[in-house]
Amino acid sequence: MERSFEKSLCLGTGIPFVLLLCLISVPNAIVLIALYRNPLRCFRKAFSVFLVFIAAMDLYIGIVVCSGEAAMRFLCAFGDKQIPQEGDIPRILGYIGINSSILLVTAMSVDRFVSVICPHFYLREVKPRKLILCNTIIVVFSSIFASLQLTGISIDIYLLIDIHLHTTFPLVTTTLAYLGIFVALKKRSRVDLQRQSITARNSRLRNMRQLKIAQMERKFATTSFFILLFLILSLVPYFVAVIIEANCSICRGQKWLFVLKESSVIFLFLNSTVNPLLTIFRINGLKHSVKIVLRLRRQNDVNSFGSFLPPTSLANVVSN
């Protein structure tokens, strides 16, 4: 491949990584600060653990991965380095972040499924400490799997395993989980309607509480579904390029395929820019907490949002 073409490609893909570095790091840092400070005391249950881990992993992608990719591409454009390839340290660090995010979202989908299908079991058995352990195992596993590239394993075999492990499996699992959530919520809404018609003399406070719990379950399920959707959309261009390269021997070495693959790498990180904005927009407690952290609103001017989001700060989550 011509060196001038490679330098142009490195420069053209390096600039977006600098932009991603800012667009990913700043919002996720703000979200983590809001979760840690927890000014409204509205993050006290297990679901908060997923918010913390996903935001932390996105922050890692912004600060570590995007800065590494940008540095390598600028060294390629203005120095004698080559564009990052499979097996290079920046690419391995990227695999750690992206694979961890995929599996964390998958675990969050299963968590939402269990909380909707078996609410009493979930409240009794699923504790923040257990989810912290589970999410930590996911991150460690993703780190070990990404590090396999350093052992000399065939990249084609590695990518094949990676596609099935971090695309096929999560897609099937989350599809089944959200299908189960949808059926359960639809069935529960009919049962609740029948109960309300039979027990019309129930207190208004109890009915309002049941309504808020149902709204909270739907909002959490919908929010985690949107996170999954944007994650899949960000993965599609890269895996299409990988599949074309693996199955089209004539296409290998062609400039258009090289440009497609390197450009699609950028899309892998777009999900990390969407996650903080999506969670802030969808979760009222987090939205108002962020406003308080940014001093856009005084804490005394905001009512308690404990009914909207499982309440506790990161410090409380760790201490439970």
UniProtKB/TrEMBL annotation:
Molecular function GO labels? G protein-coupled receptor activity
Q: Name one GO cellular component term.
A: plasma membrane
- Indicate whether Chaperone appears among the record's keywords: no
The cellular location(s) given in this protein's UniProt record come to:
Cell membrane
Subcellular location, principal: membrane
| Any coiled-coil regions, as ranges | none
User: SUPFAM superfamilies, from UniProt?
Assistant: Family A G protein-coupled receptor-like
Q: Where is the G-protein coupled receptors family 1 profile domain?
A: 27-279
Enumerate the transmembrane spans.
Answer: 15-36, 48-72, 92-110, 131-161, 167-185, 220-244, 264-281
Family annotation (Pfam families)? 7tm_1
Which key words tag this protein in UniProt? Cell membrane, G-protein coupled receptor, Glycoprotein, Membrane, Receptor, Transducer, Transmembrane, Transmembrane helix
What is the similarity comment for this entry? Belongs to the G-protein coupled receptor 1 family.
Under which name does UniProt file this protein? G-protein coupled receptors family 1 profile domain-containing protein
Species assigned in the record:
Desmophyllum pertusum
